[in-house]
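Incident log, support desk, overnight shift.

02:14 A customer reports that sequence design results differ from what the structure should imply. Their input is reproduced verbatim below. On-call engineer (initials T.W.) acknowledged and began investigating.
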């Protein structure tokens, strides 16, 4: 017997016409032109939160459709360029403005993240060079001399060491070459940047930092 609502009207259950039927497009391979048109038709459209939730729930428990696949180098570059600098959705955001602000990762998540970037899995891996020891002359006295020489400013961003001491960086990345001309003062942020694209930073610091590795 059909149910009635609060006003005594019959409530008829809506059954979609295609419920239980196989989608007409299932198994169909779309042409590149067809895919392009679909992409253009949806370009600029934003999904509602309700729509996003439905998509998420429909995929829950199922393997990723991208599992086992890899992006081409060209695709990786496009993805990188699309979110570089002020194009990134979090560009310029600080503190509570960031979506992950206040989020605490579990110990298990931290362990997995650490293991995924350990040793040769890390894109900055250089064959264990970071474990090499510094020369005995690279002591606090020498580091203070370099900071004083650089007017206690980072040679890249010119930030002062107000809250924490400036770090001393080896321009040629050779820890045993502790000649003052091979050492520069960097803030923590800039020093971290020099761990990537080492050839570029070496050239830049040699030219613009007034430093020669010889």
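02:41 Re-run completed on a clean worker. Output:
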């Amino acid at each position: 017997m059909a149910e009635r609502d609060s006003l005594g009207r019959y409530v008829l259950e809506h059954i979609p016409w295609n419920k239980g039927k196989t989608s007409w497009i299932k198994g169909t391979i779309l042409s590149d032109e067809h895919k392009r048109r679909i992409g253009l038709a949806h370009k600029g459209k934003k999904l509602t939160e309700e729509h996003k939730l439905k998509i998420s729930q429909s995929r829950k428990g199922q393997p990723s459709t991208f599992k086992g696949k890899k992006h081409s180098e060209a695709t990786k570059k496009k993805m990188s360029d699309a979110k570089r600098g002020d194009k990134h959705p979090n560009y310029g955001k600080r503190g509570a403005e960031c979506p992950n602000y206040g989020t605490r990762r579990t110990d298990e998540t931290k362990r997995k993240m650490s293991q995924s970037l350990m040793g040769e899995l890390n894109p900055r891996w250089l064959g264990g060079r970071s474990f090499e020891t510094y020369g005995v002359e690279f002591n606090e006295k020498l580091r203070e001399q370099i900071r004083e020489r650089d007017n206690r400013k980072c040679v890249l961003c010119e930030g002062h060491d107000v809250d924490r001491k400036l770090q001393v960086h080896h321009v040629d990345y050779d820890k045993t070459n502790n000649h003052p001309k091979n050492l520069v003062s960097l803030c923590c942020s800039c020093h971290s940047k020099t761990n990537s694209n080492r050839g570029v930073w070496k050239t830049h610091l040699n030219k613009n930092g007034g430093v020669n590795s010889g």
